[in-house]
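Issue: ligand-bound run for magnesium ion - logging full I/O for the record.

Environment: standard queue, default settings, no custom constraints.

Inputs:
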Amino acid sequence: MVTAIDRGRYTCRLDDGAVVTAMQAREMGRRPVAVGDRAALVGDTSGATDALARMVRIAERTSVLRRTADDADPVERVIVANADQLVVVAALADPPPSTGLIDRCLVAAYVGGLAPVLCLTKADLADPQSLLASYASLGMVTVASHGDDVGSALREHLAGRLSVLVGHSGVGKSTLVNRLVPEADRAVGRVSGIGKGRHTSSSAVALALPEGGWVIDTPGVRSFGLAHVGPADLLVAFSDLEPGTAECPRGCDHSGPEVECALDDYVAAGHADPERLASYRRLLSSLTASP
Ligand SMILES: Nc1nc2c(ncn2[C@@H]2O[C@H](COP(=O)(O)OP(=O)(O)OP(=O)(O)O)[C@@H](O)[C@H]2O)c(=O)[nH]1
Ligand SMILES: [Mg+2]
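Outputs:
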């Protein structure tokens, strides 16, 4: 598994635990490789100092977390491959939570095939209850933590799984990782204020959890572009609603009864849960809001 990437050098962990540095073999072309990818290595796989193996293949991915710089950007970046879970990390204060960013991360999770978890940090600074409640209604796992105490709920949810942490700079992702993986020694920064562009962590790194599984720390994001996602993509994650769109007018954006979307009648007839339709539309509206 690729655990870190630095200027064309891939740090890989073999199944027996050895750590090997590799570079892409020419025959791979310039296929993008992400942290979390499963790679086939040949050549010097001894892991000795200065040894460099060649990466010849990556395995088909079970999930892909993608984002674009903004909603007009045609270039999709793969943040992490093969993760089971996306942990959206948001601080309750300092910096204040942005529900727009949280919702957009959730969309990326649903579309990329990752189970979403919301982790609210800095619960020592503000009460998490109202925000936790508003996301619990989306049917997702929510946990609150404060610096010294990650909480057993988060630990249990991460054990045995491959999870990626995503959120604004300064929300405490690396702080969480250091608590979860005592030898991780990730640099932790001061909160510099959103938009000032100071990020403490500069690249994604996967760390093995003592309980089994992996946690991936990523650099803070300022926004989460979703140029690659449309209403139909999001509907895939709401398979209970999807059959209801058969009666929609052509090109329906499913935004509400004003556009004669058939989902309202579908729910009114008892075929699906009205709360699920409300959730779908809430995430849908985050697609058209500014990133
Ligand atoms: N009060 C309080 N401060 C916290 C908590 N968690 C983290 N911090 C502080 O928040 C600051 C930023 O923490 P980091 O872990 O570096 O944040 P990050 O999300 O990794 O930031 P980037 O790497 O820039 O994306 C540090 O000063 C931490 O000590 C918490 O639960 N409560
Ligand atoms: Mg960090």
